Task: inverse folding
């Protein structure tokens, strides 16, 4: 079964104009009716670093989860943020961005990779105590623009370290749109075979015309967890290319359906969410 993770947090977080809290909540409430496995709805990080997400706790208080089967995921960058997120029973998953690039880890979380690994262990322990699941995103998972070391063997080393911490979900993140289908296939096949108890996912930033071969490569290699954002809003400013955005969920769904995968989404609610997305991000 394919798991679809809808990421309004990633779509919203980089926008300069602050999106009203009530509008955020209305949009996420609509997404919760579609039938996604998980909705990545917000983050408990420094409001100075990500001002758009400063109202995550308030947004959460406005969400109607009673009629939704979707689970909630929030991003954290340190133990303080994790403790704040774990206060809310409604949150199922905490996500932590671990980078294969030392440069990007410092820029993203103000930590070294080694410090970030210590933080992951601390957050993992907290999650186990509270009955939550930690999702680790391996950012710069397919290369980086900084000249930092990168290789499939380095990826395998990171995965081993996370497996030693009993991390159960790892999502390879193509932060700058550099992933090639052959590399995608290699990473998923090798790591999934080596660590069958880990659920491996994909968080792509890519040009729309490059999406299909990347998704097909991941599918063929056994990936069953995909992140997306309606209409492809968002993406990483480090890409320095406005066309390199999040995977448009509607395009991802189309590819999956053409490959014979059922998504079990409510098409009417999805259509309403698409209309609302156009308003929220206009």
Result:
């Amino acid at each position: 079964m394919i798991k679809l993770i809808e990421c309004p947090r990633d779509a919203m977080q980089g926008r300069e104009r602050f999106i009203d809290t009530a509008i955020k909540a209305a949009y996420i409430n609509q997404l919760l009716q579609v039938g996604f496995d998980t909705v990545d709805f917000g983050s408990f990080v420094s409001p100075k670093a990500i001002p758009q997400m400063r109202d995550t706790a308030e947004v959460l208080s406005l969400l109607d989860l009673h009629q939704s089967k979707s689970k909630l995921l929030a991003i954290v960058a340190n133990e303080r943020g994790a403790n704040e997120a774990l206060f809310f029973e409604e949150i199922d998953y905490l996500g932590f961005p671990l980078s294969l690039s030392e440069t990007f880890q410092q820029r993203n979380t103000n930590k070294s990779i080694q410090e970030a690994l210590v933080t992951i262990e601390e957050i993992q322990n907290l999650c186990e105590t509270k009955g939550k699941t930690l999702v680790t995103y391996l950012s710069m998972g397919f290369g980086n623009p900084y000249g930092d070391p990168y290789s499939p063997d380095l990826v395998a080393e990171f995965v081993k370290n996370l497996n030693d911490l009993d991390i159960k979900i790892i999502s390879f993140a193509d932060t700058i749109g550099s992933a090639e289908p052959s590399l995608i296939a290699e990473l998923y096949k090798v790591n999934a075979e080596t660590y069958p108890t880990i659920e491996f996912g994909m968080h792509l930033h890519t040009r729309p015309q490059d999406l299909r071969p990347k998704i097909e490569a991941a599918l063929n290699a056994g990936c069953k967890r995909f992140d997306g954002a309606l209409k492809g809003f968002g993406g990483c400013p480090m890409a320095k290319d406005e066309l390199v955005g999040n995977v448009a969920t509607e395009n991802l769904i189309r590819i999956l359906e053409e490959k014979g995968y059922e998504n079990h989404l409510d098409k009417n609610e999805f259509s309403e969410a698409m209309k609302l997305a156009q308003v929220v991000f206009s």
